[in-house]
Every structure is written in structure tokens, then in C-alpha cells.
Design brief:
It is a single chain. By secondary structure, this protein is α/β, with parallel strands linked by helices. 24% of the residues lie in helices and 26% in strands. It is built from seven helices and 19 strands. Strands 1, 2, 5, 6, 7, 8 and 19 form a seven-stranded mixed β-sheet that branches. Strands 10-17-11-12-13 form a five-stranded parallel β-sheet, with helices on one face. Helix 1 runs parallel beside helix 2, helix 1 runs parallel beside helix 7 and helix 5 runs parallel beside helix 6. The protein starts with a strand and ends with a helix.
């Protein structure tokens, strides 16, 4: 079996940046798309905060450009989702269904998937008024009334950030008790732009036909009564799930599953690097993911040189 110099998991900003740098270093990286090709940018419409695009760029277009750039320098991109990995010895052994790959180094850029409510109407309107990233999309709803779903610190952070743009932010939570820390909850409750609806769930997001959010169909859990709630956007603040479950017991992770790194991108296993949202619970931006992807590729190049490859 051919042993690869490096394998990269993920084709979001982090994985593709790593692929560009590794390919330009003539490492011939093998890149697997994973179960969410393109990462969260593939679900985003207009990206206005990625440097170099003064008029903005569509998320899928940015990913496609990076993919073409990586393959131009010799990166090989395949469809495949990692099912099992053995990181106990080098070369590392990776299983993608029936395919087995061995590699001297591994860059984990598999990202983190946003938690969604799972409503068909919600999924249809992602990028059209439904978002899981206030930092990415809040600006588009300046001067409008918007909603945030959730009761933890993520929801409070989203709501507080969105007050910079919205005239009113309504936090919708299914319970009366909040998981958010006291300091975050108090800060949100004291803000004059933030209102709360508790004991309430979203049953539908409207209006799919118009390709924009016009209202939410809410249901009061105490009375089971439903009603329309006008809003221009719905932001999910119920957290993210790092795509790192396949490394449980082999790599260190925090209580929520984010991979722990040292010196930005190094895991505790030499030759295994982690970059982007799979290890970043704080920033979760395309540009920071790209930056750590660059770091991971440079560290891989250095590691292979030190080990005579």
C-alpha cells in the first residue's frame, strides 16, 4: 500500500488552505471531503468579511475557487467519510468505508456542524434568513427585528452581538430555566434591545416560497397554542458539534468534543494536526480557519523534513 505524505480531512476553508500549502510544498496531499463537503461556507450565501473580495463572494464560490487552487498545485480530492482511524503508530491507518489509506501525517480539518432544529422549512431557508453565525450574517439584518433560538451561552452571545444591528432581538427558549452562565444571562436580560420568550418552540419558519424569513410559527408549551411571530431572521444559538467523534480515546478533547491543541495546531500525537472549527470553539470564522489550515500544512512540512521524508 502506498504511504501518503499527508492526508487532510475536510474541504472547508481550513482543509483547502492546508491542501494549497501542502500541494505547493510538493507533498501531494490526499484530501477527503467528509460528510459536509465545503464546510459551513457551503451553506452560506454572501461572504463579505473574507479579505480580498470588496464586493463579497458567495460561500460556495469561495470554496470552489479554493478547491481549484489546491488541485492546480497537485492536491487530490476524493469523496469519503472517515469511519475509523488508528493513530497508535506511524504510518497512521485510516478507513474510509471499504478504502484503507496509510499516511505519515494527518491534518484534521473536519470542522464543526451547527446544531439545527431539524425543520424542513428551516433547512430550506439556511442562507436566506436562517443562520447559525451572527458574526457572519448579522450585518444583513441591520434595522430589523430578529430572533435567536437557545438558552445557553451561545444564544446569549449571539443575541448580544446582534443588538449591534437589529432594532430588537427576541430570544426564544423552550424552558424557563437557562443553561447560560449567570453573567451572560444577566448581561442579555439587562440589554434594552433583548426580549425573551420562554416555554416556546418553533414549529415552522416562514416563508419558503419567498426565499426569505417573514415570521415563525411558534407554540407555547404551556397552552399548546400556536401563533405567528413576525421576524426577519432566525439565528440558531444551540451550539455546534465538532466532527471529531472518530478520534475518541486517541486524541484529547474538551467536554464538548473540540480537539485540544498545543502551539495552535499540534495534537498530543506527533504528526497529527488539527485546524479550523474542529478545534476552535471561540472564533469559528472562515479566515481563522484558513489561517490554522496554513499553520497545519507548514507544520506537516517541517515534521516530514525532520523525519527524513
Amino acid at each position: 500500500m502506498q504511504v501518503r505524505n499527508t492526508v487532510i480531512l475536510g474541504t472547508g476553508c481550513s482543509g483547502l488552505t492546508a491542501a494549497i500549502y501542502a500541494a505547493r510544498a510538493n507533498l501531494k496531499p490526499l484530501v477527503f471531503e467528509g460528510h459536509e463537503p465545503g464546510g459551513q461556507l457551503s451553506l452560506t450565501t454572501l461572504v463579505e468579511n473574507f479579505p480580498g473580495f470588496p464586493e463579497g463572494i458567495q460561500g460556495p464560490e469561495l470554496i470552489e475557487n479554493m478547491k481549484r487552487q489546491a488541485t492546480r498545485f497537485g492536491a487530490e480530492i476524493r469523496t469519503g467519510h472517515l469511519s475509523k482511524a488508528d493513530l497508535s503508530k506511524r504510518p497512521f491507518t485510516l478507513h474510509f468505508g471499504k478504502e484503507t489509506v496509510q499516511t505519515e501525517t494527518l491534518i484534521i480539518a473536519s470542522g464543526a456542524s451547527a446544531r439545527w432544529l431539524g425543520l424542513p422549512s428551516e433547512q430550506a431557508l439556511i442562507g436566506h434568513g436562517v443562520s447559525s453565525c451572527a458574526t457572519c450574517d448579522g450585518f444583513f439584518f441591520s434595522g430589523k427585528e430578529i430572533t435567536v433560538i437557545g438558552g445557553g451561552d451561545s444564544a446569549m452571545e449571539e443575541a448580544l452581538f446582534l443588538t449591534r444591528f437589529a432594532t430588537k432581538v427576541t430570544v426564544i427558549h423552550r424552558s424557563e430555566a437557562f443553561r447560560a452562565s449567570k453573567i451572560m444571562l444577566d448581561r442579555a436580560k439587562q440589554h434594552d434591545k433583548i426580549k425573551f420568550l420562554t416555554h416556546t418552540v418553533v414549529d415552522e419558519v416562514r416563508d419558503v416560497e419567498k426565499k426569505e424569513v417573514t415570521s415563525l410559527l411558534l407554540r407555547d408549551l404551556r397552552t399548546n397554542k400556536s401563533y405567528d411571530f413576525p421576524t426577519s431572521a432566525m439565528f440558531l444559538g444551540i451550539g455546534h458539534i465538532p466532527n471529531a467523534k472518530m478520534f475518541e480515546g486517541q486524541l484529547d478533547a474538551d467536554k464538548d468534543g473540540y480537539l485540544l491543541t498545543q502551539n495552535f495546531v499540534h495534537t498530543r500525537v506527533p504528526g497529527v494536526l488539527a485546524s479550523g472549527d474542529v478545534s476552535d470553539r471561540r472564533y469559528r470564522q472562515a479566515i481563522t480557519a484558513a489561517g490554522t489550515g496554513c499553520m497545519a500544512a507548514l507544520e506537516v512540512e517541517k515534521f516530514l523534513e525532520e523525519h527524513g521524508r
